[in-house]
Specification:
Number of strands: 7
Number of domains: 2
Strand content: 5-15%
Shape: globular
Structural class: alpha/beta
Number of helices: 21
Radius of gyration: 26 Å
Helix content: 55-70%
Order of helices and strands: HHHHHHHHHHHHHHHHHHHEHEEEHEEE
Distance between the termini: 90 Å
């Protein structure tokens, strides 16, 4: 039975409402974490110093930080307002998504299933709530794909596509992979337009050159990209599998390395159903515009994956990452919807599509019944608040020594509006491990790096994380051997770790 236009609009509105609700759900249930703190820290710089500060970080262009600075100027730095920034761009994203589907002339059932995958995807929910550039990146990439489809089908909106692509590459370097995908699509499918699309590429490149020169200028100042992404493994089969899971995983997302990659009881059946539908569909692919549209979506989906995969093996460091490839989620979801809604014989659609939605429902129930975990990095904000309360009447500078850049950055951020605290990070203490993926920003000297020989004075505070309070283990044992006595610790527990903040004093003789 054909649905009326109003009924179709009502259904799409309902799915878009679900899209918004699952992204606002738990929006402020967790504190800002390390990378989000960097975002806010960058945006707090003056206009004169913002671009240099971001350039020293090397791995991200400045457009997101530029917009975030304006956002903070408009509404402040409350957790809700900061998290509303990525949420805002996430709820805009369905607009170009639906416009892309309309430009592809997809049937309503295909659009509905594609939008449903888009609405419930766990990774997209995660990045809609994180003060990083990925929600903005996704939104702009969808506008690029929609405008490219219009250019491909009708030769329209060339200049608007060019402007959007300039914003795209200024948001994330992987935006270049989408731009290259559009060039490849024209080269293989509509070569008559290759001159104009190469012009688009050239204009985008010329407009990007000022940032290239900025990077060259500031990267000479203690910048090493291996420090940023040297920890990323070169991709293999497991990386492709994890990316596939991320694209189809409903509601669930991995918040920390301590959590499982996926709920495989949900994701594996969905992957198998999609694979079956894709195999059946590929044996009955028609000619004409439908085939051309499928090829465009396929190129926009898989060219970025292929380039990222090859580049990760050829470059000195791997650039692979599902979050970097967020630009391919939407076109793959549309392809999946095409596979599911054009299955023949018809009974296969009647069986497979309800099974997929049933798995969506089970995934929602699992997510709803699981409490938001407590993360160790949130402990430092709360412990800093306790420290601030205890020291509010003190006129003396309170020194805090920590043993990880991650802890130092969180404590500094929580105390940055006070001149009564000094955070120092102590390196080289034997027996203490540190995650080197987290490091203090370059060009930032509010936190001093030193060694354990710096400990002096009658009293100071230390902050560290461990599984238990153990005076016989570092860093407590080191301080005790130097003649200090730890006091009663303040601590918070998260998972199998505890965050400790304790005052130590010179032992009286």
């Amino acid at each position: 039975m054909d649905l009326s236009k109003n009924a179709r609009r009502a259904i799409l509105f309902a799915v878009c409402s679900v899209f918004a609700l699952v992204r606002v759900w738990d929006l402020t249930s967790s504190c800002l974490w390390f990378d989000e703190i960097f975002s806010v820290h960058a945006a707090e710089h003056s206009w004169d110093s913002l671009f240099g500060f971001v350039a020293q970080d090397v791995i991200h262009p400045p457009f997101f930080y530029f917009l975030l600075k304006l956002w903070i100027a408009a509404g402040g730095e409350s957790l809700f307002w900061l998290r509303f920034f990525p949420f805002f761009f996430s709820i805009i994203a369905p607009v170009p998504f639906l416009l892309l589907c309309r430009e592809m002339k997809l049937r309503f059932s295909t659009v509905l299933i594609a939008l449903s995958f888009f609405a419930v995807n766990g990774s997209l929910i995660k990045y809609a709530q994180e003060v990083r550039m990925y929600s903005l990146f996704l939104c702009i990439s969808l506008f690029s794909m929609w405008l490219f489809a219009r250019f491909f089908n009708r030769g329209k909106d060339f200049w608007l596509l060019t402007i959007i692509n300039i914003l795209l590459v200024y948001t994330h370097y992987f935006g270049w992979l989408l731009v290259l995908s559009e060039v490849v699509a024209i080269l293989f499918l509509q070569r008559i337009k290759i001159g104009r699309v190469l012009l688009m590429f050239a204009i985008t490149l010329v407009c990007f050159l000022p940032w290239v020169f900025t990077i060259i200028r500031f990267s000479a100042v203690n910048s090493d990209i291996k420090q940023n992404i040297g920890w990323i493994a070169k991709p293999g089969f497991s990386s492709i599998f994890e990316l596939a899971v991320d694209v189809i995983e409903p509601f669930y997302y991995q918040q920390s390395s301590a959590e499982p990659t996926s709920i495989f009881l949900i994701s594996i059946p969905i992957l198998l159903l999609i694979a079956a539908a894709a195999i059946v569909f590929s044996t009955d692919l028609k000619n004409g515009e439908e085939k051309s549209g499928i090829y465009v979506l396929a190129l926009l989906s898989f060219v970025p994956i292929m380039i990222a995969f090859i580049a990760s093996w050829l470059l000195p460091v791997s650039v692979w990452g599902s979050r970097h490839l967020i630009i391919i989620f939407a076109p793959i979801m549309i392809l999946i919807a095409v596979f599911l809604t054009q299955l023949k014989p018809k009974f296969m659609q009647i069986v497979i599509v309800p099974l997929v939605f049933l798995l969506f429902g089970v995934a929602f129930v699992i997510r709803f019944n699981n409490k938001q975990p407590h993360f160790i990095w949130c402990a430092w904000e709360n412990l800093a608040a306790d420290l601030r309360t205890g020291e509010k009447d003190s006129a003396e500078l309170t020194k805090i020594y920590v043993f990880e850049d991650l802890v130092a950055y969180h404590l500094w951020f929580a105390l940055r509006d006070s001149d009564k605290f000094e955070v120092n990070v102590v390196k080289g203490v034997g027996g203490l491990a540190e995650d080197t993926a987290y490091f203090l920003p370059r060009g930032f000297d509010d936190v001093k790096t030193t060694d354990e020989n710096v400990f002096s004075g009658d009293s100071f505070w230390i902050a560290f994380r461990a599984q238990a309070w153990q005076p016989t283990s570092p860093p407590l044992s080191n301080l005790i051997s130097k003649g200090y006595t730890p006091g009663e610790p303040l601590f918070l527990e998260a998972g199998n770790e505890k965050a400790f903040l304790v005052e130590v004093k010179k032992t009286e003789r």
